[in-house]
TrEMBL record:
ATP-binding in keyword set: no
Alphabetical keyword list: Cytoplasm, Methyltransferase, S-adenosyl-L-methionine, Transferase
Pfam families linked: TPMT
Cellular localisation: Cytoplasm
InterPro entries: SAM-dependent_MTases_sf (IPR029063), Thiopurine_S-MeTrfase (IPR025835), TPMT (IPR008854)
A GO molecular-function annotation: thiopurine S-methyltransferase activity
PROSITE patterns the UniProt entry points to: SAM_MT_TPMT (PS51585)
Name by which UniProt lists this protein: thiopurine S-methyltransferase
Family: Belongs to the class I-like SAM-binding methyltransferase superfamily. TPMT family.
UniProt-listed GO biological process terms: methylation
Any single Gene Ontology cellular-component annotation: cytoplasm
Record's catalysed reaction(s): S-adenosyl-L-methionine + a thiopurine = S-adenosyl-L-homocysteine + a thiopurine S-methylether
PANTHER family: THIOPURINE S-METHYLTRANSFERASE
Length: 243
């Protein structure tokens, strides 16, 4: 099993060498070629497991959204708890691996800007396509959003568009858990990118109440080929609720 410390270390080392292109998908595609991406974890995310009650408030049969989901086991775990799970992933190979590794049957459907893979009971759906090009009316509204590695991965210039998307798909009862990274971006530019508390409030504060609920010290992890060591490097989890 890959622990979260090693997972983040591999993520940082590799992605410090990535240069984004006009096509958002290209920099990610190579990491799905004949291998499991290093950011994938073989266990349920510990923050999700720890704070699941904040998202569900003890309710059953909720609709979860997981942006840039990859093949995370978090989806299977939530599905097995009885929830409906909807993910979006730009690399189709990862989606196919998810269904194969989880021994789940799926039905494939083609849309104008996406391909949908879903279980026969339709409670687990993964859209293959550009996160910003899939119509929100297709996705519908969600009771809960789990964002681990999505906001910190997208380009900075896409953050406002990303926040707009999250607000559009969040129901008025939606609970939103997001894991971000805090570090000195003058010493490391990412990705994964620094998303400071001020930036988070700027993006979401007009719509959501925002509360820090957890943090983990990840200082002194070698950063990329330059072997930069950051004195302050935190993974911080925020809990967002509609105002």
């Amino acid at each position: 099993m890959i622990d979260s410390y090693r997972c983040l270390q591999y993520f940082v080392r590799s992605y410090s060498r990535v240069r984004m292109t006009n096509n958002r998908v290209d920099p990610w595609r190579k990491h799905w070629t004949n291998k499991t991406p290093f950011w994938h974890k073989d266990e349920v995310n510990h923050f999700l497991f720890k704070h699941i009650d904040k998202l569900t408030e003890g309710k059953q049969g909720l609709k979860f959204f997981i942006p840039l989901c990859g093949k995370t086991i978090d989806m299977r775990w939530l599905y097995d708890l009885g929830h409906t799970v909807v993910g979006i992933e730009c690399i189709q190979h990862g989606i196919l691996e998810f269904f194969e590794e989880q021994s789940l049957e799926y039905i494939q459907e083609e849309g104008d800007s996406f391909t949908l893979f879903q279980t026969p009971d339709t409670r687990l759906q993964i859209y293959s396509g550009d996160l910003f090009k899939i119509p929100t009316k297709v996705l519908g509204k969600f009771n809960a959003i789990w964002d681990r590695g999505s906001l910190v991965a997208i380009d900075k210039e896409d953050r406002k568009l990303y926040a707009k998307l999250m607000k559009e798909v969040a129901s008025e009862s939606c609970k939103y858990l997001v894991s971000v990274l805090h570090y000195n971006q003058e010493k490391f530019a990412g990705p994964p990118r620094n998303v400071c508390k001020k930036e988070l409030f700027k993006l979401f504060g007009d719509t959501f109440d925002i509360e820090e609920v957890d943090r983990l010290d990840r200082a002194n992890i070698p950063m990329g080929a330059e072997k930069i060591s950051l004195e302050e490097f935190w993974e911080v989890v925020y809990y967002l609720r509609y105002k």
